[in-house]
Amino acid sequence: MTNRELLGDPVQLRYEFEEAFDLMALSVEKHLSAAPAVIRNYTAHLAKSTGKFIRAYGLLACSMDEEDKVPPEAVTLASAVELLHLATLVHDDVIDDADTRRGIETLQQKFGKKAAVICGDYLLSLALKLAASIPERNEYNALDMPNYLCRICMGELRQEINNGNLDLSVYRYLSIIKGKTAALFEASFHGGAMLSTKDEKKLRMYRKAGNHVGMIFQLMDDCIDYEMEEAQAKKNVRSDYEEGVVTLPLIHTMKQDESFSGQVKGGLVSARELYDRVLEAGGTVYTKAVAGRYYAKASDAIGNLELSQAKKARIMTVVDKSYYGIKNHKNIKQHKEE
Q1: Any residues with CB less than 8 A from the CB of 151 and at least 6 apart, and which?
Q2: What is the DSSP string of 191-221?
Q3: Which end of the chain is more exposed for a tag (fewer CB within 10 A), N or C?
Q4: What tens digit of pLDDT does each residue of 196-253 get?
């Protein structure tokens, strides 16, 4: 396979979806494993455990044309999105002082925080460089990746500012994750859609669907911290509260029980007691119900796009994966059309 193919250059007109997905995954691996020597030790460690590429999958699905083929530019953009996502995870792990990510040691745990921050910066720069490398890139300026990156950073900063804020409202919390997590899903859907349509109304619907999917993903991830063990989740769990991160399950529980809220604010509740109480009070049940409302919105938006059966099925795979999670849905890499 040539470098042109890995970079998504138009050596052929269109790819079958599975071929495009494999090329994207190979491109991400190549950029991590073949980084400049000074940083290769760090990026090679990250290459040992890449994610399920759910954002890239969504971008590729949204880019499918009338014949359900994927343009080469989508492979490049999807690779850039995954590298950008990886950069945010590396930085998150430094902020959270996380030990594991995707079942292996985090970069900051293995090599130190300074090396991890610098590596995250490198991945961010690489992602933007890759996104700008697509042919006729001026046609896709409306995607405005830097703007999406700003939204992600602002979401992360708002979360940090509200660290330990036990008076955080539901509305405020949802606005935080709308930037922190949902912006990159929106960028993925938007980027893919721009390669398949120029219709501004349809592009807005794709963006809305992507944002809804991102909200689903984060809300269900909030529940993982309460409901799963670390071996199953393959990352640190039972950690949000100890790190001062206030999420929707706790917000809801505290609003339902003023006595419990007072105990938490007074520091009278241990972490173990808090997690048990949130589960008993239905904090995760409520959070999943909110995610369910976003699921309905995303499904409606996708249904209104009048897509082919194959394209709709691909996009709905991302919606379902975000909602049903790692326990109750097929691995996205193994998904096949019915």
Answers
A1: 179, 183
A2: HHHHTT---HHHHHHHHHHHHHHHHHHHHHH
A3: C
A4: 999 999 999 999 999 999 999 999 999 998 887 655 555 555 677 777 889 999 999 9
DSSP character string of 25-69 = HHHHHHHHHTS-HHHHHHHHHHHTT----HHHHHHHHHT--TTS-
Report how far Cα 116 is from the mean position of its chain's Cα atoms.
Answer: 19
* Tokens representing residue 218 in the block: 């984060």
Residue matched to tokens 């209104």: 304
CA distance 255 to 134: 49
Alpha helices (H) along the chain? 3-6, 17-33, 37-47, 54-62, 72-96, 107-111, 113-131, 145-161, 170-180, 182-194, 200-227, 230-233, 248-256, 258-265, 271-280, 283-303, 309-328
Q: What is the pLDDT of residue 3?
A: 45
Q: Are 335 and 234 in contact (CB under 8 A)?
A: no
**Six-digit token string for 230:** 């670390």
And the tokens for 205?
């619907």
